Amino acid sequence: MTVTSMISGNEAVQRTYPPPRAVVSWIFFDWAAQPYFTLIMTFVFAPYFAAHVAPDPASGQALWGFATAAAGIVIAVLSPVLGAIADATGRRKPWIAAFGAMLVVGSALMWIGRPHAPELITPLLIAYVIATIGVEFATVFNNAMMPTLVPPERIGRLSGTGWATGYIGGILSLILVLGFLAANPDSGRTLFGLKPLFGLDPVSHQGDRISGPLTGIWFVVFVPPMFLFTPDYPARHRLGPALRKGVAELKETLRTLPQQRAIALFLIANMIYTDGLVSLFAFGGIYAAGTFGWNTIQIGTFGIILAIAGAFGGWIGGKLDDALGPKTVITGSMTLLLAAIVGILSVSRHSILFIPVGPPEPGGALFASAPERAYLLLGCVIGTCGAPLQAASRSLLIRMAPRERIAQYFGLFALTGKVTSFIGPLLIGIVTAATASQKAGMAVLVMFFAAGLVLLARVNPASPSRPSA
Description:
mainly alpha
């Protein structure tokens, strides 16, 4: 497919884009990687770790926060350098394969996390750090392939469709775990009323632990179309020269970045609000487990509902991105997220908006109490807004950054998404540990979204600086 698109001012550039099969195959990366965020980081393994592996939910939230912070530091330090090297070498797929292997190995090792086994906490968290580094770096290089797939005016829709497709993959992986693998220890039955497949033992939470190996298998099964059918950038330099050239170009980019006011402000805003969003997703399930005493099936059902909301949000957000611009989508999403966080902090097991409510009926249905339903509604707002926030953010960067250094800028994008990403989990961990209160720990997220909104208001995406290579 050949199109004429407008790039930088009035310069018309004739570009050839690959067929739809290549675009669909690229989208499948989001489908392949999303179960890591859905099953491990949010709705199954993280709450299981806090509730059954760690000594208590508060210390579990703190330990998980410290491990997430450690992974974030590594990603922040290395992502711009690796992105610059990738731009110099030209290739993206070898990097995706290498870091995808880390995702698969780290996820598979999470099976070792037996309940009430304190000697396994450290190796389990190491496996989590390895897998997190792998999935985040693989995502950096996958994002860098986007400008070659569709014209600039369709980037928003592509980004939003990718996120929506990923959320659908997350939904199906959750249904697989909850409906067929993870059972309630009391009843021995899954969400569908079945005995767990493969004889998985509910008492030792094998259904929760299998989410790690399942995530790795899912990635191996569904990522091949991207490798087979999505064209890579052409090779440019060997690794040695690419290392020298990439580092030199990165230094030049960092030197000139302060003069590119729009991009610099956006990257700082992204640094702050992404920290809040990652922390919100990472601790939402843990917070629900501690606040309402939800088990894996309840948290997973909550996750399915949120993922459905996220799929809808990503799809409609992509359309709004192309129609209204990514900055408008980001601003609206953050405003609603801020309101939802404040609402969540006002909900407890026995109150809504700090107003006491009656206890649920004994033996009631799933999410029977009014506070649980309020938390579910607020969670849907978070799911609906989280996907377009992330999709529009990478869309805005693509519209602003120099095309010839796109992997480098996605490295900076990952840097700003991770350089302080340890601060959110670290603050949550510290405040939670100091106060023994999950609510106090989660309250620190308010300032991240408020500060992100203030900075984003000063970004003018219509006039970014575009230095040449």
